[in-house]
Every structure is written in structure tokens, then in C-alpha cells.
Amino acid sequence: MLSVVGLGPGSKELMTVRAVETIEQAEVVVGYTGYIDLISKAMLEGKEVLSTGMRGEVERCKLAVERAAAGKNVVVVCSGDPGIYAMAGLVMEILEKRDDAKDIEFEIVPGVPAFCAAAALLGAPLMHDFASISLSDLLTPWEVIEKRLAAAADADFVIAIYNPKSRKRSGHLRKALDIVSRFKKDDTFVGIVNKADREGQNVIISKLGEVDEDKIDMQTVLLIGNNSTRKWNDKMITPRGYAAKYDLDD
Amino acid sequence: MLSVVGLGPGSKELMTVRAVETIEQAEVVVGYTGYIDLISKAMLEGKEVLSTGMRGEVERCKLAVERAAAGKNVVVVCSGDPGIYAMAGLVMEILEKRDDAKDIEFEIVPGVPAFCAAAALLGAPLMHDFASISLSDLLTPWEVIEKRLAAAADADFVIAIYNPKSRKRSGHLRKALDIVSRFKKDDTFVGIVNKADREGQNVIISKLGEVDEDKIDMQTVLLIGNNSTRKWNDKMITPRGYAAKYDLDD
């Protein structure tokens, strides 16, 4: 049995009941060191834990598949949802290469994605059509990323930005904001959330023309509003359109 | 205290620990009848339950705010995540109109969105940049929806379609698929998921040129792949790009 499990944004409180149970029943838990650290020691007691550093994801997922092929009950843990910029696909691509893949029972346990946890802290910035774009060009050509930024901004999607920065790519965020600014006004509200639901959580509401890049690191999620996103009571609201159709007063 | 809580796709297993605890501690639970039914009777015992039919969301959220203003511990429940086409925004818009809003403690408890639950059942169809678009024109002009469909398809996003059909809008899905087909090939894989994680769950993998509209209702989520989405072992995989950089064989 091989399960790819989303831990949600960080705390055990935002893990699903099924994620908790799946990890508890596993014999082997595989994951990036930073994600293993999100799981309580009590939950990991008596299990084989295989953790590797950040760029070790291929090695990690291969190890997990091998342990499962050898008959172990294996869990690969990811933060957020395993299907969003995480390990569900890579595990499947590794399974795909193996002749014994059909003998390995496989499941994906969805989780609360990072951008939903960020949105909840910001108020209600999503609420309407949205696009999610990663600025990492490790596995995607930068031209494709640029095209998606422009398309999403031009069609007035709310935009979630993942992987806004890394040690190697300090200029990408600036370029991305410049592209979005060709279509969205400088006073468009932008939510900037670091470490949602983890120690060190930080929530900022800024504007497209005023984003402070020093407040942003690799794990920050940015949520750029659409043309009707507003700020109220230190929260972002992207109205769905009810006020135009219904009386929202008492 | 007023909490807007995401129940996740359906079963208690995919509720977060915090959602379960928040509902357990509430005195009043407010929600659409269909969502209230997702919560076990044991969890609701001894609570005031205020449920209304599908178009009653404004009335429901006003009631919830009034009960919270009167000092009750109130939970508004939504399926999926409360920030994605659900009640987080509407509750905030109603709060915004009240002079006593600052006296009402307010929180949003994120949940597993329907499209993530659908993706997990389909395999790994998201994995790369994606856009989410609702075909409901009750609150959004159809021209805006058309523009977003074209933009997302042209920039090769994976596309999640919410609200593909209703009794009043039988032609919208056909129009939407035609727009997407101007940019994506007819053999692009499309995942069609009904009632993810609920009784009656049904998962279909089809192609853009072959979507059977009879298999789709109001609550179906469609996930339209990007140009590299493939099918393997009755699952969808949208590769992230690892295979181009790493050796995925043993």
C-alpha cells in the first residue's frame, strides 16, 4: 500500500481525519525533512522515517515506491494538497516506469492547499475565478510562466503565486509583478502570507504597486485580487456579486 | 463567535480536525440542507440547526450573523473550502454592513476543496499551473466567463470547471467546451467527477472532443488537462517536468 498524503498547511488541526489515520497506520513515512517536522513525534513512533533535503524529491519518491513494492505500508507526506505542486504526480510517474506497478495499491489523500489556508487568513480573497501559477522555472520554461501570468491578469482572475522566490531566482517575482501590472491597477490588493498555520505565521495586505519583496521568501503565497477585490477591517474581500442582486442590509 | 467552516468534499474522513472541533463546540449550525446532511447526527445533537434550500444563501448568512451578534457561538458550514465559490465572502459582506461587526469574533476554517478531492480520485491532473472557472452566470456576466475560458485555455492552464450545468443553463457547458476547444486539442484528457467522496461517487476520464454531457450535473467538477496531460492505468497524470531532468527509472 502506497499513500500520498497531504498534511495541509502545517498544524495537526488542519490535517484531515483521514490523513491522520493513514499516517498512524503506516509502517514507513517518507518526506522532505521540513514536512516530517510538521508531524508530531508521537505519530511517528515505531515507524521507519525516510526524510531527505529539498532537492531530494526524486530519490525520496523512488525509495517510497521501492518500500511499497516490497510489501510495506508506505506514506509519502507533502504539505498542502499532494496534487498541487507536490508529490502525487512524481510518485505516479515513478510507478509508471515499473512492471510491478499494478501490484502496488495506490491512493492519494487530498489536503487543504496552502493557498486556501492563506486565503482564510486574509479573509475571502478567492471567492471568484482564480488561477494558480508557480514562478519556479526549474521544471517549466520561463516563457510559459510569463504567458500564463499575462493571460490570468488580462482575464481578471484572482491570481495565487507559488514559489515566488528562491536563492537562485531573485528577479522572477519583480518580473512577474511587472507583467501583472500591465493588466491590473497598481492599487489592486495583494495578500502576502508567510507560514500560514505554522510557527512564524505572517499576514500582510499590500497593493500591487507597493509589494515589499523583502517580506517574501520561497514559501510565501501571494494572492493578487481581481478588479473588485476590496479591503475591509484588515481583511480582503473579493465579492461574488451578491450585493448587486440581493439586499445585504438587515 | 462566528466561524465559516469548510466541510471538505463530503465524508467526515476528509474534514479537518479543526472543522470537527469547531462544529462540536458550536451552539448554532447554519447551512444549506444538503451540507447539513453531510454532518453526522451525533455531531449536531443539542445544537440549533438552521438550514435552508439552495437559493437561500443570503437569508442563511444573515441569520448566522444575527445569532452571532446576539452572543451565540455560530458555525456556517460549506462543502469544500469556504473561500472557493462558497460562503466566506458573503458572510463578510453581510458583516461589513453592520455597525457592530467589530464586536463579532470571526474566523474562516479552510477545507479540502472539491477540485482537489476530484483530482485525487483522478490521479494527478493538476500538478501544474491551473485555473478555476465557474460557469454560473447568476452573479457573473457570461462574457467575463467566456473571456476567462479562452485565456486559460490559450495559456495551457489545467482548467477546473465548477457549476457546469443547472436546470436553467443547459447550453453553457457546450459553449464552454467549444471555447476551450479553440485552443486545446480534441484529445486533451478531461476528468469528470461526480460526488467526490460522497455516496454515488463517479469518476470518468474522457477527452475534450468526447465529453458526454449527460454524465454531468450541477455539482460535477471537470478537470481539463494541459497539453502534456496523459492517461496511465486509468488515471490522469499531468507531469511536472521531472522526467526531462531526472532519471525516473530504478
Number of strands of chain A: 13
Ends of chain A: how far apart? 54 Å
Q: Unreliable stretches of chain A, pLDDT < 50, 5 or more residues?
A: none
What kind of assembly state do the chains in view correspond to? homodimer
Largest sheet of chain A: 5 strands, parallel
Roughly what is the average pLDDT of chain A, rounded to an integer?
A: 94
Textual characterization of the structure:
2 copies of one chain form a homodimer. By secondary structure, the first copy, chain A, is of the alpha/beta class. Chain A has 9 helices and 13 strands. Chain A has helices at 17-25, 33-36, 41-44, 57-69, 88-96, 114-122, 142-154, 172-181, 242-245; strands spanning 2-6, 28-32, 48-52, 74-78, 106-109, 123-124, 130-134, 158-162, 189-194, 202-207, 221-224, 230-232, 235-237. The first copy, chain A, has a 5-stranded parallel β-sheet, with helices on both faces. The first copy, chain A, has a 5-stranded mixed β-sheet with strand order 7-8-11-9-10, with helices on both faces. In chain A, strands 6-13-12 form a 3-stranded mixed β-sheet. In chain A, helix 7 (142-154) links the parallel strand 7 (130-134) and strand 8 (158-162). In chain A, helix 4 (57-69) packs across helix 5 (88-96) and helix 7 (142-154) packs parallel to helix 8. Chain A is globular and about 55 Å long. Chain A starts with a strand and ends in a 5-residue tail after the last helix. The model of chain A has no long low-confidence stretch (mean pLDDT 94). Chains A and B meet through helix 1, helix 4, helix 5, strand 5 and helix 6 of A and helix 1, helix 4, helix 5, strand 5 and helix 6 of B. Strand 7 (130-134) of chain A pairs antiparallel with strand 7 of chain B.
